[in-house]
Amino acid sequence: QDSSDDIEDVSLFDADDDVSRRSKKSKIRHPVASFFHLFFRVSAIIVYLLCELLTNSFIACMVTIILLLSCDFWAVKNVTGRLMVGLRWWNQVDDDGRSHWVFEARKVSAQGGKTSSEAESRIFWLGLITCPMIWVIFAFSALFSFKVKWLAVVVMGVVLQGANLYGYIRCKVGSRKNLTSMATSYLGKQFLRQVSAQ
């Protein structure tokens, strides 16, 4: 917890004990967390798309969307990341007043078994990556269609969901150097895959 790039063992509300007691056959071990991981972010997108059809009040739409985005930010950062994939991140201020970002990943158990299911992991990462991309598309759409009043709402969506995406990528990958090398490695593999397919 001292440095910003530490990856440490995470105690997730005694989740390790609960997982060992549950049947290994269950694909989604945390159905409520999985539901709320997608509910707030998808609801914000739906409200953004339909709000002009449902009401003429820009303020009501803006407040609803920002509340949904805020609930999503809190739920993903504090609950679903811990339960679904065993990752968490936060900012910690030490006694000297210096700010440290802490990124943690749950270590694999001694038995070698996975503590999170593949289905939950896919749901988590799919929602975490797809929704910020949709908000970026909305940002360009609002900018090029000159809907300046919606630009503030869309930027809020990009910032809140992008912050969670960045935080969890840092948790998964580790330091900034590893993030760059992972991106380079991924792009290299994709290039080789396309070349070998032709």
Automatic annotation (TrEMBL):
Would I find Chloroplast among this entry's keywords? no
Keyword Transmembrane assigned: yes
Provide one Gene Ontology cellular component: Golgi membrane
- Entry's transmembrane regions: 31-50, 56-76, 123-144, 150-169
Q: Which UniProt keywords apply?
A: Membrane, Transmembrane, Transmembrane helix
Checking Pfam families in the record gives: DUF846
Q: How does it sit in the membrane?
A: Multi-pass membrane protein
Q: Which domain of life is it from?
A: Eukaryota
What subcellular compartments does it reside in? Membrane
Family, similarity comment:
Belongs to the TVP23 family.
Annotated protein name in UniProt: Golgi apparatus membrane protein TVP23 homolog
Which species is the source of this protein? Illadopsis cleaveri (blackcap illadopsis)
Mind giving the lineage of the organism this protein is from?
A: Eukaryota, Metazoa, Chordata, Craniata, Vertebrata
